[in-house]
Amino acid sequence: MIRVVLADDEELIRVALAALLDLEDDIQVVGRVGDGRAAVMEALRYRPDVAVVDLEMPGLNGMGVASELLRALPGCAVIVLTGKARPVHLERALKAGARAFVVKGAPASTLADVIRRVHTGQRYVDPALAADALTVPPCPLSPRELEIVRLSSAGEDTAAIARHTHLAAGTLRNYLAAIQSKLGVTNRHEAVQAVRDSGWL
Which domains does the chain have, with CATH numbers? Predict the structure, then answer.
């Protein structure tokens, strides 16, 4: 019997996944939780074979859960589930220790098959996402530029961003101009949106 913990912040999805997996003779759902921190605690409590975690959850996202479980419970294989798949998310999830990356729109039977695969030590990546990952361009922004975009996304004004980054106002303006040019946008709000849409933030 493969013991599974489910973590998704949407209760309907948790209930539906548990119901589908309970139809499988060799899979038992031992825990269901609604956030990443609770997922880690539930996994440490029940010591499941597999944890199925949503990519975006409050407290700790799916990549954070994968990273913590890799360290604290290496025998538990992590499957990251998402409705908003981006190639960059795939790369980060695998680097964090996830064994599989599945999109929520996949057929119901896929998740059970993937659970069995990772339980035997295999990996799985949604084929369409894997194909996209091979063609997506890398982020054109430097780490410093990404930091400026991140601060902008938090609602910081230019004076606050300059303080946080220890940049002179003129230097910050040059960075913002370079960011906008690289992304092909006209202001920093569009830059934040472009970076979010690409999954680089």
Answer: 2-134 (3.40.50.2300), 143-198 (1.10.10.10)
Q: How far is CA 20 from the centre of its chain?
A: 23
* Whether 14 contacts 39, CB under 8 Å: no
CA distances, 63 to each of 39, 52, 105, 109, 119 (Å): 12, 11, 20, 24, 19
Among residues 88, 102, 85, which one has the least CA distance to residue 21? Answer: 102
Give strand pairing partners of 100: 79, 124
What's the CA angle centered on 162, arms 156 and 166, to 5 degrees? 135
Looking at 47-168, list the stretches that DSSP marks H as alpha helix, in order from N- to C-terminal side: 62-72, 87-96, 108-119, 127-135, 143-153, 158-165
Query: Please, what is the Cα angle at 155 between 150 and 161, to 5 degrees?
Result: 65
Q: Which of 12, 69, 76, 16 is nearest to 38 (CA)?
A: 69
Provide φ and ψ at 82, rounded to 5°. Answer: -150, 150
Q: How confident is the model at residue 41 (pLDDT cuts 50, 70, 90)?
A: very high
pTM over 0.85: no
Q: Which tens digit of pLDDT belongs to each residue from 118-160? A: 999 999 988 877 766 666 677 888 999 999 998 988 888 888 8
User: What confidence tens digit (pLDDT) does each residue in 2-31 have?
Assistant: 999 999 999 999 999 999 999 999 999 999
